[in-house]
């Protein structure tokens, strides 16, 4: 008679809670970064000089050279933490999809959207950061030339809604999970999150249009 000696060791409750806190903190940090990043890039709408001045400040203080890789590392670390709960196997994905359709639970669907957008952001976001950080200094003319090339316009038209959906849902789910959003005001806050996401997508689209028509000569 053979005995199966393999043992599945589940993480302790304290370890799981610690990892959840790290996931929440890194997620909150990335949310603040993405919103700040969007506003800073959107400064081009005030003129190329405004964006160039801000970019020069971040590079002169080495915030771009040091902060960029740190943000990339934080993004990867956050993904690893979140991947603990993401179903990667086909049968797991099929099960959770069936459950989501059966339950008709809004927050379950939001989690699925967040998991899907995370995969895209990890790949496309890494490409974006590599291209920008290996071609310093950042200038409005360089960004405009990249957008006007055509490929990058499509690239950012895909990445923009993915990022803002992921960030907006993450903001909402952090509030729900850690008790900042109560059941009685959940619908109201979710509506606010949708409006906020729409505003940032709108700002991003306006910024892309501005880059498209900006003179690069």
Kindly state the number of beta strands: 0
CATH homologous superfamily annotation: Fumarate reductase/succinate dehydrogenase, transmembrane subunit
Number of helices: 8
Strand content range: under 5%
Query: How many individual domains?
Result: 1
Global mean pLDDT = 82
- Which CATH class applies here? Mainly Alpha
Q: What is the N-to-C order of secondary-structure elements (H for helix, E for strand)?
A: HHHHHHHH
Residue share in helices? over 70%
Structural overview:
The protein has 217 residues and is mainly α. The protein has one domain (13-86, 96-213): 3 helical TM bundles of succinate and fumarate reductases (Up-down Bundle). Helix content is 77%, strand content 0%. The chain is built from 8 helices and no strands. It has helices at residues 13-41, 48-60, 63-82, 90-103, 106-133, 140-148, 151-177, 186-213. Helix 1 crosses helix 8 (186-213). It is globular, with a radius of gyration of 20 Å. The model is unreliable at 1-9 (pLDDT under 50).
Can you give me a brief rundown of this structure?
The protein has 217 residues and is an all-alpha fold.
